[in-house]
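Dear colleague,

Following up on yesterday's call, I've attached the two folding results inline so they're easy to grep. Please treat them as preliminary; we haven't cross-checked anything against experimental data yet. The first protein's sequence and structure tokens come first.
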Amino acid sequence: MGAVTDDEVIRKRLLIDGDGAGDDRRINLLLKTFIKWCNSPGTPEEGFTQYQRMLGSLAQCEFSMGKTLMVYDMNLREMENYEKIYSNIEQNITSAHEKIAECKKEIQRAKRIRKNRQEYDALAKVIQQHPDRHETLKQLEALDKELQQLSHIKENVDAKLELRKKQFHVLLSTIQELQQTLENDEKSDNDDNSQESPAENGE
């Protein structure tokens, strides 16, 4: 048989002790009362009164048990929700890495465009020294149009890169906030457990 996990120990404790209000002691007391009632030589009226008290105690135990099961089910749903959130975050991180890789490719393309533009500028200077003015002007016009297109492409690439940086920053902030929320929840659960333990020891 494998080792019992902490979750199983807590679950069994909750099923036995209800919400921590001493239901295990109440059940033991009810059992002792039942045995005493079975062996009691008292009058029927006294036996009936004791019987009603036992029914009341049993109802309290059943109510606590139902409430504990509801809390347990709610915790399971919360855990499932956290797992879904964590899965979504992992998917967003993967998507962010893919977008970053795409942005790097766009940056390399922009560098190539810049290099080509410098080469075109140098070529334009050479063409300007050519004796054929008419042909030179036509080539310069074509180069100017191409340079404008390349400049527009570079602006689009820069805008996309800035947008990806902002989106990645927002994603990282969301991850940090969720991590802080999970840590706070875990700390709150630990504090609740530490407060319940002295109360149980006192009883």
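Below is the second protein, in the same order (sequence, then structure):
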Amino acid sequence: MHWVQANSSDFGGSLPRPRSGHTAVNVGTSMVVVFGGLVEKRFLNDLCVYDTENKVWFQPECTGNESDGQVGPCPRAFHVAVAIDCHMFVFGGRSGNKRLRDFWMLDTDIWQWTELSSYGDLPSARDFAAAAAIGNRKIVMYGGWDGKKWLSDVYVLDTMSLEWMELSVLGSLPPPRCGHTATMIEKRMLIFGGRGGGGPIMGDLWALKGLVEEGETPGWTMLKLPGQSPSPRCGHTVTSNGNHLLLFGGHGTGGWLSRYDVYHNDCIVLDRVSVQWKRMLTSNDPPARAYHSMTCIGSRYLLFGGYDGKSTYGDLWWLVPEDDPIAKRSAPSRETNSSESTYVMSSTLDKPMKEDDASITAELHKRLGISVSISSESEGGLVDEVNDKELLDLSWRLASKMNITTHNETDLVQGLREHWMKCSARSIQLQELGPLLRDYQRLVSRKYADSTYSGTPVFHFFHVRNASQLRMSDIPKLLNEYHLLLSNGGVEHG
């Protein structure tokens, strides 16, 4: 997949202003409706509509019951918006320091706002909640922040009767959270990530049943899927497209003594067929951001807006397949993202493994009892540790497993190296081979670059292009040479 920044030839009309914390929903098959958001501490309540058939942006003139001289909802951000047929339903959000509890419906056939706040027993005021459509009649909303506490309640709205019902869920519950995503997959709602009680940012995935079938007892299940799962984050997006859920962006936390936000621009797919996480290969990546919007338009995805801790974005980006005509418009400007579970939405992904690769994998699986997965590293030059996403992800997972609290990237990488120093060929996991090989090659290149190093070159794997080329008998030798590199005076970060 290729990222291509949109230009004036892609659209007609007036483009939406920069913003974050807005919503963008597909209404029918021919419109994307952007509403609200925040820019430079100013909350917005404008509507910007993209006509996907005519490729034109426009701002409709809406009618409705005027309140305080305005038609429709007050300015807001971090609200929820869900489309059912030609109607867009909006609930809550934040305006200034006030959490909102109002409920609105926009009829996009006649561009009319209707306030529905007087119907039924509404959920409490909140922002940073997440919601999704259940079929073509109901909406489910989960969690949020009410200004004092994180929420874990589940509400279901019947858009015909306009009644809200709080769902009673027994058993294990996800930790309360806000800034997460909610996505309906057939009969289940999936939530991922968010910021939870006490402030930590989470990377867990939960499924809620009992939303569709009559008589099914509602219940949560925590899912631990294979593959390279996303790092903990909030303010990300999850966009559904056929058998794929595409997760993009968001922010997590770094730092140890002082905390800071880390913004992401990675693409990770939850493949519904294989039921695992897969890292998507992308090129020409946009700047990292959170609280953006991502919508699916045919085979393309449209990214708009967001915030990176300093700036609010107003740029528009397409994420397109390799054979899309506009993919040729922009040559890759950055190194391709890579992982042991690389994912490309292209038929070229389905090429069978080479016989030698398959035999190595089978032998590893048989002897070491590890999961079968072949690494697919980038063929570009070596990158520093802080730019090796697979290495950092592996470091984070190891630190989390060992309950290590540091978020300093240098300390995390050092912890992973100490782990590898203690590993034997029997204990090394297959998904570690790609990052291990690249780190080995980094260390070798620094040893050779150091004029004070006078050791005899005994490094046999410096020119191996990726881990799939390693034989079973190579792994003990690779580890021995790696141990030699680390024990011989240590290695500084580049």
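For the second protein, one point worth flagging: The radius of gyration is 25 Å.

Best wishes,
A.L.
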